[in-house]
Amino acid sequence: MPSYDGGWSDGWKAASGRLSLAARSLGRGVADLILPPLAHDSPEATASAGLTPGAWSRVTFLEAPVCDGCGAAFDHDGGAFAADRCPACLAAPYAFGRGRAACVYDEASRGLILKFKHGDQQRFAPLFARWISRSAADLLADADAVVPVPLHRMRLLSRRFNQAAEVARPLARSAGLDYLPDALVRARPTDSQGGKSARGRRMNVRTAFAVTEAGRRRIKGRHLLLVDDVLTTGATAEACARTLLAAGARAVDLAVIARVRNARELPR
To answer: What is the pLDDT of residues 69-105, one digit of tens each?
Structure first.
């Protein structure tokens, strides 16, 4: 049993930590009043969540009701007796249990995501993490840990950062979940998925992923949330989920920044 002095010391440290966090938050708030944060899509100052009002209004955010399997928007709420999954997910469910996307991948969101992914603008990561924390709130509530879709080490060297990891890290932190960036690795280099058919995409990432020995111990029996940037056909997420489940994960769900309107078909 801890001594009185030890308990008092621990309590003082915890209280000091809370006061320090509150002071930092207050400092950021005062700084934002004096020098408002700039929008990600413009040099204008903004009070919104990182976008100018015009850019914000153009993004098609996905709101309930959505398919529980892939996050696709339903045209209308079918009521208490409606299926919770779209026909494609009922006919051929993904290996991951449930999927959520923050928005539709279209002209409005594509530019933002490409700036982040290929334009080395990592400032978008906290913004996208906030979007996902809202759209995938129910998945985060059930998850034990967050796993980003990995890049092969050669692509990581050329790009300098893994866009999925940059979003997954603040997402896990805000949700109070374990963050496992090294549990899943891309064991072999793969070609870009762009321009490939659905079958071509599946073949491209088949056997591309592996779980490390340390990762195997950390995922065994746990409910994982897999994080990626865009869901197109689902081939990459499918390959990752199968690999994690085969290594002992209890369940795997998926959360992405954006998805094409029909993830079972390539965008035109």
So the answer is: 999 998 766 666 578 999 999 999 999 999 999 999 9
Query: 73-83: per-residue pLDDT in tens?
Result: 987 666 665 78
pTM score above 0.85 = no
CATH number of 53-259: 3.40.50
Residues with Cβ within 8 Å of 117's Cβ and at least 6 positions away in sequence, in order, are 163, 229
Domain boundaries, the chain: 1-35, 53-259
Other Cβ atoms closer than 10 A to 30:
10
Size (the chain), residues: 268
Q: How far is CA 244 from the centre of its chain?
A: 16
Residue 111, Cβ density class (10 Å: 0-12 exposed, 13-18 middle, ≥19 buried): middle
- Residue 66 phi, psi (nearest 5): -130, 160
The 8-class DSSP code of residue 74 comes to: P
Strands of the sheet containing 178-179, edge to edge, are 99-104, 251-259, 223-231, 145-148, 178-179
The DSSP letter of residue 181 is: T
What is d(CA 190, CA 188) in angstroms, rounded to the nearest whole number? 6
What is the separation of C-alpha 170 from the centre of its chain, rounded to a whole number of angstroms? 10
